[in-house]
Write a structure and sequence with these properties.
single chain, alpha+beta, 8-stranded mixed sheet, 5 helices, 10 strands, 27% helix, globular
Length: 208
């Protein structure tokens, strides 16, 4: 496994610049904006032998959208947010009680446009572990982590056709990424796509 310094260096190389991000915004002028935090943690107590994981949340059945789904902390841009990083950190603080000052923000990945016309910016951040999270009970039922090595194993995910429920007049199938169950949780949809894109870029730089 990579050391923290090595991982940080590799993560920095896969981030996008402000000009690249602005070009993407111009391609979707009418899209609503949102950000998610990709929280990376060392699940090992040994800093010399780190075990890098991604942290995910499980949404409750009380939320308006994406009930019960596995997701990254995040949400819609607020008018007070200065940039995508601010949005991701604010949402993570509201949803799971992660203090912004505890996150080492590395940078942003290329945005992803959803079928609901949200332009989502993934923000990469290293977080401390263990950490005492405070969950927003209306939104998050629990948090858990998945090892990067497991996520990077291509045999652990597949593409399945799924009906596009956003277009009830002319429904059609679209390709959706599904991971195998991990601790009885299934990562799929936009969060799975962000995860695969993130790991694809990271693996282009190094081997986990």
């Amino acid at each position: 496994m990579l050391s923290r310094q090595e991982l940080t260096s590799q993560l920095t190389r896969i981030t996008v610049s402000e000009s690249e991000q602005e070009n993407f915004y111009r391609r979707y002028p009418g899209a609503k904006t949102a950000s998610v935090l990709i929280p990376i943690l060392n699940a090992s107590e040994n800093e010399l032998a780190p075990e890098w994981h991604l942290l995910f949340t499980k949404r409750t059945d009380l939320v308006a959208d994406h009930k019960g789904q596995v997701s990254f902390p995040g949400g819609r841009t607020d008018p007070i947010d200065l940039n995508p990083e601010t949005t991701a950190l604010r949402e993570a603080n509201e949803e799971i009680g992660l203090e912004p000052g505890k996150v080492q923000v590395i940078g942003k990945l290329e945005q992803i446009i959803t079928i609901t016309n949200y332009l989502v910016t993934p923000v990469i951040g290293l977080i401390p572990w263990p950490y005492s999270f405070t969950l927003e009970p209306e939104e998050v039922s629990h948090v858990f982590s998945i090892p990067l090595e497991w996520l990077a194993d291509q045999t652990n995910h597949e593409i399945r056709p799924r009906p596009d429920l956003q277009n009830s007049d002319f429904p059609h199938l679209r390709d959706v990424i599904y991971f195998k169950p991990y601790q009885e949780e299934i990562l799929w949809g936009v969060s799975a796509e962000i995860t695969v894109r993130f790991l694809t870029k990271l693996l282009e730089q190094t081997h986990l």
